[in-house]
Amino acid sequence: MDVGRRNSTLQSILSHGGQSALSCNKKIHRHLVIEIYQGHFLMLEMSVGEMLSQLRSLTLGKSDICNSIGAISYRDCKLILTDFKQIPNIESRTGCIIVTMPPVVSIITKDHIYVIAKEELNLDNFLSRLCEITKFTSTGSLNDTILENIEANYLPDYDKNVTLLALECCISVALEHLKQDVNDVQREFEEIKSRLRIKMPYNVIMDGLHSLKQPIGNTQEKVGAFARIFCDIVNDTADIAKFELINNDTLETDPTMSLNGKCASQVNRDLEILFEYFDQEVAQYAIEMRTLVLAVQDLESHISINLSFARNQLLRLDLMCNVICSGFTFGACISGIFGMNLKNAMENSVSAFVVITSVVVLCCILPMFFIRILFKRNRI
């Protein structure tokens, strides 16, 4: 009896455990990852663990994964595949480069490129460019014949390895989206300035400026994050050497080698020039954003000054109207006091009644007309 009960209990535990494992399996969140290899791309649905194991098999091979220094980790894959807002960054790991420059999120190895699909990313153009880079090679190098066959404007005249070309392509696409964001906020600001030229009411212009502040702040923050990335890389030669996977293999066993200046002479000059160029481009975007912020502040100051001037004019007009009304009130009181017992021949005249009534109605209409002109002139 005890043995039978024990077996039934064990079966129930195993069945519940299998159901719980199956439910956990269903809860694993998968992401759309595009693998590019030898000119072809393959769309995969991968979890964080699957992506980590595949990347480690490509970058580390048969080496000891547990003791490898600088290898890609679970945390890296988790940050790459996260659905939340990502911090722009470019990092080097053993055998791979992680590019996180939203909307471009990719991992570059010697012969494979992995791209994380994003809604705001134009995948057609991006994937075609990466496929052209990896089309003729799986070893990570391009020769003269390949450079002649590849017809792409973004490829320079000198030889570069595939990782460098892929890194250039990823950063270029990210900066294209950044430039588009900068152009969008600049275009919206020009539309608001055009409202000022056609003399629209100031409240409409101020509402447009207020709604534009958040996009400008977000774009300026994004440009600043990109600028910090390239500034940190350009100012440290050792960091530049890490992004060339040929040198990266020599550093995986001794990460302190990048600090003693031995690899400073091994830095790829093309890679250094590439990062300097991107640093200058992002710096130009930062200047444009600072200029745009100053232009918005100047426009707000201009509108505030004009509103203050219009307010002063209205106060003067209000004072003048009060004085005139006081005079009319005083005159009406005097005429009422001294004219109550006086006889007037025009009391029985119809024409006099029509003239006086017309004058009174005209005096009521004219102030409304002048006030409307004043409001339109001062954009109130």
Automatic annotation (TrEMBL):
<dbReference type="InterPro" id="IPR039204">
    <property type="entry name" value="MRS2-like"/>
</dbReference>
<keyword id="KW-1133">Transmembrane helix</keyword>
<keyword id="KW-0406">Ion transport</keyword>
<feature type="transmembrane region" description="Helical">
    <location>
        <begin position="350"/>
        <end position="375"/>
    </location>
</feature>
<keyword id="KW-0813">Transport</keyword>
<dbReference type="GO" id="GO:0016020">
    <property type="term" value="C:membrane"/>
</dbReference>
<dbReference type="Pfam" id="PF22099">
    <property type="entry name" value="MRS2-like"/>
</dbReference>
<keyword id="KW-0809">Transit peptide</keyword>
<dbReference type="GO" id="GO:0015095">
    <property type="term" value="F:magnesium ion transmembrane transporter activity"/>
</dbReference>
<protein>
    <submittedName>
        <fullName>CorA-like Mg2+ transporter protein, putative</fullName>
    </submittedName>
</protein>
<keyword id="KW-0460">Magnesium</keyword>
<keyword id="KW-0472">Membrane</keyword>
<keyword id="KW-0812">Transmembrane</keyword>
<feature type="transmembrane region" description="Helical">
    <location>
        <begin position="319"/>
        <end position="338"/>
    </location>
</feature>
